[in-house]
Amino acid sequence: MIWFNKSPYPRKALEHIQAAFQSGKISGDNEFTKKCSAWLEERFNVEKALLTTSCTHALEMAAFLCGIKEGDEVIMPSFTFTSTANAFVLRGAKIVFIDIRPDTMNMDANLIEDAITEKTRVVVPVHYAGVSCDMDRINDIAKAYNLFVVEDAAQGMMAGYKGKALGTLGDFGCYSFHETKNYSMGEGGALLINDKQHIEPAEIIREKGTNRSSFFRGEVDKYSWVGKGSSYLPSDLNAAYLWSQFEIADEINNKRLAIWNLYYEMLSPLADKRLLSLPNIPEECRHNAHMFYIKVKNGAEQADLLAFLKSHGIGAVFHYVPLHSSEAGRRYGVFFGEDKYTTRESLRLIRLPLYYGLSESEVVEVVNSINNFYKG
User: Fold this and answer.
1) DSSP one-letter code for 28
2) What pLDDT was estimated at residue 130?
3) How far apart are CA 54 and CA 239, in angstroms?
4) What's the CA gap between 61 and 209, in Å, rounded?
5) For residue range 91-101, what is the model confidence (pLDDT) as tens digits?
6) Suppose 93 and one of 15, 88, 194, 361 were both cysteines; which one would form an S-S bond, judging by CB atoms 3.0 to 4.6 Å apart?
7) Contacts of 121 by beta carbon, 8 Å cutoff, 6+ apart
8) Sheet of 148-152, strands arranged across
9) Neighbouring C-beta atoms of residue 147, cutoff 10 Å
10) CB distance 188 to 238 below 8 Å
11) CA distance 52 to 177
């Protein structure tokens, strides 16, 4: 059996988890949480990085910090996970979905401006597969209309756009450290803050509406309830596991890129015969090998190939069902313009196994199975 995903298992993972446990300080914002946050800030040159219990919670904090209220509108692609929309729906927003570009599966930035109304407050680019959206165009539009930009960079850590890290290009960036991501803490995430004025409000929201963070820095003599908030702090045990991966972050990234490149090379003959298509990486983008996907002819072929791979012990999967076609999507949002590519392309896409521990021989087995499918 070739699994679709396995979380990284660095050499020092258990050592760090044991150290966190033995310290007696396993709640949030202790030794390993601080190490991870500092690493993110230094590595990606961001004002503040706050670890959270999930990328969902990072997005919820971003929605809170944007001041979203009932009746506001938020523009995003329909081809994304439910968390992207739910974070804003929870604050009372209406979601305005727009179509994607078929070459990257990212939101088509050229469709944003026509979707803006007097109620629009936020644009949410989703960097699919760790490949950046057209952030220059998105930021230009946001500036012209005084909109927030919240990057859903759940799949984007270690990826970049024109030399800058994904998650640092808008007002807020949100990373995921779910077990399926390049770097994992089981469940977890991070909120990246790119403007200092948002740091203290974010700390208050994250610390249950208290100024506890200011207290620990010695800025106040006691902490108390000062505003709205919730509990978004992960355990230091989770952060200890994440830290073991940050210590070898480049090694993990390079291994994933090598796997991605091997897939691309070995599947190119099928692409040349136009039996399937391969991912496209725009010149201005640096991807992080978060996933390797192929696109087949249509939904029927997608189902057939997935069933064939499953019968051969290969854990390939389809991806998002477009949100606008779901029950909640119809209730809380609207698709602006024509769904020219979102549904069609989602029915073509298949994700192949890709993780740090995947061997070259397993990649060869996956590719051989795909070749056998098309031979049959």
Assistant:
1) T
2) 98
3) 12
4) 12
5) 999 999 999 99
6) 88
7) 66, 67, 68, 72, 73, 74, 93, 147, 148
8) 48-52, 189-193, 172-176, 148-152, 120-123, 73-77, 94-98, 333-335
9) 22
10) yes
11) 9
Domain architecture of the chain: domains with CATH: 13-246 (3.40.640.10), 249-375 (3.90.1150.10)
- 185-212 b/e (C-beta count within 10 Å ≥ 16 → b): bebbbbbbbbeeebeebbbbbbbebbbb
CA pair distance 121, 43, nearest whole angstrom: 30
In angstroms, the CA 145 to CA 202 distance is 24
pTM above 0.90, yes or no: yes
- Of all residues in the chain, the percent with pLDDT exceeding 90 is 95
Report d(CA 26, CA 349) in Å as an integer. 41
Backbone angles phi and psi of 214, in degrees to 5: -65, -35
Intra-chain end-to-end CA distance of the chain, in Å: 22
Q: What residues in the chain have per-residue pLDDT under 50?
A: none
- Residue 354's Cβ-count burial label (10 Å; 0-12, 13-18, 19+) is buried
Tokens for 269, please give them. Answer: 């003959």
Q: Look at phi and psi of residue 88 and say left if phi exceeds 0, alpha if psi is from -120 to 50, else beta.
A: alpha
**Strand-pair partners of 73:** 94, 120
Question: Please, what sign has the CA dihedral across residues 199, 201, 205, 207?
Answer: positive
What DSSP string runs through 85-149? Answer: HHHHHTTTPEEEEE-B-TTTSSB-GGGHHHH--TTEEEE--B-GGG----HHHHHHHHHHHT-EE
Sign, Cα dihedral of 318, 323, 324, 329: positive
Coil/strand/helix, residue 345 = helix
DSSP line for 247-300 = TTHHHHHHHHHHHHHHHHHHHHHHHHTTSSB-----TTEE-----EEEE-SSHH
Question: In this structure, are residues 192 and 39 in contact, taking their beta carbons and an 8 Å threshold?
Answer: no
Three-class SS of residue 64? helix
The residue count for the chain: 376
> ∠ CA(192), CA(193), CA(196), 5° rounding?
155
Q: Which amino acid is at 3?
A: W
- CB contact at 8 A, 12 and 244: yes
